[in-house]
Structures are given as structure tokens and as C-alpha cells.
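Reviewer comment 2.1 asked that we show a complete input and output for one of the modelled complexes. We chose the magnesium ion case, as it is the one discussed in the main text.
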Amino acid sequence: MAKKISIVVSVYNEEQGLEQFYAHTSQILEQTVSDTGWDYELIFVNDGSRDGSLDILRDFASNNKRVVVVNFAANRGHEAAMIAGIDVSTGDGVVCMDADLQHPPESIPEIIAKFDEGYDVVSMIRTEREDAGLFKKITSAAFYKVMNQMSKANFENNSSDFFGISRRVALVLKKDYRERVRFLRGYVQNVGFKKTTLKFKASARIAGQSNYNLKALVKLSLNAICNFSDAPLKMGIYAGMTSLAFAFILIIYSIVQFFLGNAPSGYSTIVVLLCFMFGVLFIILGFISEYLAIIFAEVKNRPIYVIDSIITSEGERRES
Ligand code: UDP
Ligand code: MG
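Response of the prediction step:
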């Protein structure tokens, strides 16, 4: 039987560019069917869009029996959407990509070729990004540096939410990686199996605006760090030891000064030290709270996403 690739596309308020995305991607996929013999399914996960995206997706599904639309009951974020897509996928390989053509569908045949060579994980590495300013580039590079330092796991520099995984990896993610607070591309790169990378150039968004603002990026980075490393939890010990050492030096200094007849003065020393120590203390407290919040989210055990309906060419099936 012919193999099949599942393309998972997360969609949140993308009405302006969706048609162009679909026209371009489906054309490449049809071409891929005749070139490689791999059939395809195109899974759109509508992540609670508030614009006309869902109607456009309905339209795709009614005209193409290879299109599946997973319609969320509410917005759950990009990662939840990718996870849902991976969960419903039935292909021998799964490719996750964005709906704004920043992830070129031209790379799909290359990913399929890697699956044919026996690879299970294909990480797509951005070599260039047209949309990002210097700030985003520098912070992103720094992020991967810090992550690799702090964690035993390995993170590809400049990796993205564009990747290919084999059925086996999809099943592992489906069964065993159900964390509420997560860093999906980190899991993909660290489940093991045979890995390879491919390069791609991220072009600018075709339409609309990026949904990731600075706050969302900080949250994603913090989640990633706390998910893959316990170094921040142990920061308190080192900060405590360092400040203790300083305290001893200060105590000895003060005693010596006292016996030399110098009245200990030092209003500014006290203020500076207080500010510094409280700064360190609150950062440590903040990190502990971050882990606590993760544990809280896991203990509550709420679903990663809730599906409203699944739409195919055969119609709409209401879930739950
Ligand atoms: N997205 C989503 N849910 C969200 C935010 C974004 O499914 O809550 C989708 C969005 O439609 C797009 C992809 O995730 O397909 C990446 O989002 P975006 O392009 O805004 O991020 P960027 O490429 O700027 O990092
Ligand atoms: Mg984008």
C-alpha cells in the first residue's frame, strides 16, 4: 500500500492568507503524490479562530477528500493545535507547519525523502528569517545557548515548529508526552530515534500578523527552560553560598574596623546590598513559583485541547 504523509497546519485567525496557503500547498502535495508515490492528508487545526478562517477551512474540506479540519472549542495555542493534529494523523510520516507560508511546502518532498532513507525525526533549521529584526535574532540565539547549557537534552540552534516525524515518533508523542506545560520541538528533538536536519529559509508572513508577542515568547522560553532543566531550582543554593561568603568577609572587616577605632558607617553599602539580595531572592522565588505552577497544571490534569467538531468531505462530526 502507498505510504501517506500527514501535514498538520495550525490555524489561528489566518483568513487573509489561508487560500493562498492552500492553493500553493495542495499543488505541491499533488505533485509530490506523482513524484514520490506518497499519498497525503492535509490536517488543519482551527485553534479557536475568531475571524472567517473556519468557513474557509470548511470550504477546503468539502472540495477535497484529503482535507481534515479539527475544530477546537476554544483557543489553546499553537502547540496544543500541533499536538491535536499529530493525535488525529494517520500517515506514515507527519509534518507540522505554519499556515502563513513561513514554512515552505517545497520542503515537504525533501522531508519525505528523509523518511524514505529511514530517518524518524527531521528538524527543519532556519538559515534566514525575513520577518525577524535583530532583537529577535539575538534573543533566539541566546535562548538556544542557555537551553543547551542548562539542560542535558540537546537543542538544535534555530530549530522551529516546522518538523517531520515518523509514525513511531508520533505514537510516542501521542502516548507518553502529554504534559500540560510543554515545549514540543524540544520533545521532538529529544525522543531519540534516527535524527537529521534540513535547512530552509523562513520568508515573511504572506498576510496578517504574528500571534507571538514578546510576552508569549518569554512564556514559551520560561516553560522550555523549566521543562528541560532543574538548574534554576538549584540556583538558591549557589546564591545563598555566595552571599554567605560575602557576609563572612563583611563581618570580619567590620570587626577589624571596630578595633581600629573606625565607627562602622555604610548607609549606601546597606542599601545596595539589600537591593541586590532581594533581587536575587525574588528571582529564585519566581523560579520556584514557575515550577510550582507547572506542577499545579499537571496535577489538575485538564485536557490539552477540547475538540468541537471534525470536518471532512463527508460532513461535520460533533465531538464529545
Ligand atoms: N497559531 C495557533 N494558535 C495560536 C497562535 C498561533 O494555532 O494561538 C498558529 C498560527 O496560525 C500560525 C502558527 O501558529 O499558523 C505560527 O504563528 P505565527 O505565525 O503567529 O508565529 P510566528 O511565525 O510569528 O512565530
Ligand atoms: Mg508565522
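The pocket of magnesium ion (ligand 2) is lined by residues 98, 100, 102, 205, 210 (CB under 6 Å). We note this here for comparison with the apo prediction described in Section 3.2.
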